[in-house]
Amino acid sequence: MYRLAMILVLAALQCGCAAVRKSSDSTAGALDSWADGIAKQRIQKFVAETCDPSSPEYVPVVGRCAVFDMDGTLLCEKPNYIEVVITKSRLQELAADNPDLARKPLYKAALANDDAYIDEHVKEAILEAFATVTLDSLSHYWRTYVVQNAHPTLNRPYERLFYKPMIDLIVYLQNAGFSVFVVSTSQQEFIRSFCPDILPVPRRNVVGSMVGFSLANLDANAPQTFARQKHYFEPYNADEGKAVRLRERGLGQVLMAAGNSMGDYAMLDGVSDSEGRSLVMVIDHDDPEREFEYHKPSLMEKAIEENWLVVSMRNDFATVFE
C-alpha cells in the first residue's frame, strides 16, 4: 500500500513537472520581438512567478486575467484612429451617392477633409455613418477596409499596423494560461470584425463602446438579422467607463493591464490583487523613425509614482511591425 502511494505521488510530481516544462516550452522565444532589457525581464519574471505552482506569487489559471487598451497600445493611432478614418471615408461615400447630404455639416466636413470638425463630433459621426446597416454587412465593410487600405505615411495595410511585440505578448500570456481582453473606446463590433485572426483574441473578449442594434426579422424564416441604431449604450467605454464595463463583465480583479493615455488611467489604476501581484504597463511613443513620437506626461507621472512599467517603443521593441 505504501509503495503504491509513493508511485502515485511520484507520478503526480512528474506530471506537474511536465506541465511546467510544457508551459515553458510554449512560451520559449515568444518575446523575440522585444529587445533584451528591463521591460522584457520584468514581464518574464511576472509571468514566471504567477504561473509557477511552487512560487508564493502563484495565481491559478482562473485568476489570470490581462486587459489591453487597443489604439496606441496594440495598434498605431496616428495621424488618427483607424475607426475615425473609416468613418470619414464612409461619410464621403454616402455623400457621393446622395449629393443632398453634402450640405449637412458632418458630410461637408468629411468631403473637405476637415478632421478637426470630425474629431470634435466623432461620436455623432460614427452613428451617422453606419445607421440602419445590418451587423453582418458592417462587419464585412470594416474588415474589408482594414485589409485593403493602407496607412497614409507608413505604407502598410491597416491590418499590419498592430505592434508585433504587443501581439506576441498577448500570445505569450495566452500560452501561459491568461485570459486576455481588449478594452477600447473604439466600437466593440468594429474590433470584433477582425478578431481573432488579425487581432488574436476571442471576439467575446472584446470590450468596446457599444452601439445599439435591433432585431430586424424576428418572424422571418431566415437567420436573425440585427440592424444598427443611432445611440450608444452607457457607459461609453472611455475613462472611468472602462473600469465600470470591466466590473460589469465580472473582470473586477485583473492581474495585468496595458495602456497609453489618461483615458486608460481608471482601468490601469484598478489592476490589483489581494496579495499585491500585478503588472501595469504604459506604452511610451518615443520612436519617430519607426512609428511616431508623442508623449502623455500626466500618465507618465502616474506611472513613476506607482512603479508601473514604462515601455519605450524605441528601446524595448526590437521590431515595431510584423
Description:
By secondary structure, the chain is an alpha/beta fold. The chain has two domains: 202 residues, HAD superfamily/HAD-like (Rossmann fold, 3-Layer(aba) Sandwich), CATH 3.40.50; 67 residues, no CATH class. Helices cover 42% and strands 15% of the residues. It is built from 13 helices and nine strands. The strands form two sheets. Strands 1, 2, 3, 6, 7, 8 and 9 form a seven-stranded mixed beta sheet that branches. Strand 2, helix 9 and strand 3 form a beta-alpha-beta unit. The longest helix is centred in the first third of the chain and has 26 residues. The chain is globular, with a radius of gyration of 22 Å. The N terminus is likely disordered.
Helix and strand layout, with pairings?
Elements: H1 2-27, H2 38-51, E1 65-68, H3 82-97, H4 105-111, H5 115-120, H6 122-129, H7 135-148, H8 164-175, E2 179-187, H9 188-192, E3 206-209, E4 211-215, E5 226-232, H10 240-248, E6 256-259, H11 265-269, E7 279-286, E8 293-294, H12 297-306, E9 309-312, H13 313-316
Parallel strand pairs: 1-2, 1-6, 2-3, 6-7, 7-9
Antiparallel strand pairs: 4-5, 7-8
Helix pairs in contact: 3-4, 3-6
